[in-house]
Structures are given as C-alpha cells and as structure tokens.
Amino acid sequence: MPLLGDKAPDFEAQTSQGTLRLEDFRGSWLVLFSHPADFTPVCTTEFMAFSELYDEFKKRNCELLGLSVDSVSSHIAWARNIEAKTGVKIPFPIIADGNKEVAKKYGMLHPGQSTTETVRATFLIDSEGILRLILYYPLTTGRNMQEILRCIDALQTSDKHKVATPANWNKGDKVVVPAPIDQESAESRLNEGYECVDWYLCKKEIKE
Questions:
Q1: Domains within the chain, CATH numbers bracketed
Q2: Would you call 159 helix, strand, or coil by DSSP?
Q3: Cα(52)–Cα(91) distance, rounded to whole angstroms?
C-alpha cells in the first residue's frame, strides 16, 4: 500500500475515454478516486458532485480520474444514464479495473468493507507524480468535494510559499509560519510582525 510522499504506483488501464497511463497526467495534479460500483446511489451523487466542480479542479491544474471494477461498457452506460436523468455530464475518464490490478497497487480493496468492491479511496497526486494526500471513506459515506478542493489549495499554498496551514484553513485565511529552528530565531520571532500566540505558533497573511 503506498504512503504519503511515495511515488504514485504507475499503471496503464482501459478507461471510458481510452487507454491511459499515470504518466499521461504528469505536469498536472491528479485526483484518482475509486468507487464501489456503477449504477449505485451514493456513487452517482459523488460523480455528479465531482462533475459539477470539474472547472474548479481544472483551475487548480488538477485532473480527475475515477475507478471501479466495472467494465468500460458499464462506465459508459452509467455516465450516459446520469446525463440523461440529471443533465450532468461526466467529463472525466473512469478506469475499468476488472482484474483489480490498479486497486491492488493503491490499496483500494478493504476486505472488512467488501471482498469484491473498491472502497471510496481518494489519492491526490502532485504534478511530479508524488502522493500528497490519501483519504478513505466507507461504502455508506459519500465524499466531501469541497474538502478535497480545500486540501489541494492547502498543499499548493504550502508548496508555493513554504508555509503550513492551520485547522479549518480555507484559501485566503492566514497561514502558519514554519517553526523556529534555534533559540535565537525563537526569541526574534515575536518582533517580526507576525500574529503570534507564542514563539512556536505564529500566523501571517500571504498574497497569491
């Protein structure tokens, strides 16, 4: 099972939009997410929610890629059904992982939840192919797409400005200044214009 900071496992897979490899997404961020099965209610709401926010992901240079053990034909039929019944078009590809090859590489199979279906796993992979975030949801609980967007914002902000983000942070909020590395910088910290609770916890505003 891959861990945070690891290089994301490579794959080549059949999808609803043709054969794709992980390498095809190099240079952009990627949300790779699995769902238990096509034509199921919670999964349908998730795919609609991802689709409705697709432009927001694209603004962040982030692509979407779904996965389940269903066939390409099933994925195509399901996407067409969603559009016909709700008017929501699914713009991103869906991997048909019938042999569970990708699911096994990414640890998407949890026997305690199901012996045949993938759980709701979410992997955020950066533009260099490194795993930056892993989220697991049980079969009964749909994902929060705003939280996934928030995490992308947080990671991209941390990368760009060399800062951290506090609890409940949203884009535009103050960020956490990196902790001092020695006693001298700890003592000077309180006089550097930051909003400080104490020497180890200081925040500042950043300009995008």
A1: 12-143 (3.40.30.10), 162-204 (3.30.1020.10)
A2: helix
A3: 10
Q: How far apart are CA 146 and CA 152, in angstroms?
A: 10
How many residues are given for the chain? Answer: 208
Scan for tokens 């059949």, then name that residue: 14
Helix (H) or strand (E) holding 180: none
C-alpha dihedral sign at 56, 49, 24, 130: positive
What's the token pair of residue 113? 């939840």
Active site residues: 43
pLDDT averaged over consecutive 10-residue blocks of the chain (208 residues)?
Answer: 95 97 97 96 97 98 96 98 98 96 94 82 97 94 97 98 96 92 80 85 88
User: Of 58, 54, 90, 53, which is closest to residue 75 (Cα–Cα)?
Assistant: 90
**CB 174 within 8 Å of CB 187:** no
- From residue 156, give the alpha-carbon distance in Å to each of 129, 165, 169, 182, 199: 14, 11, 13, 27, 25
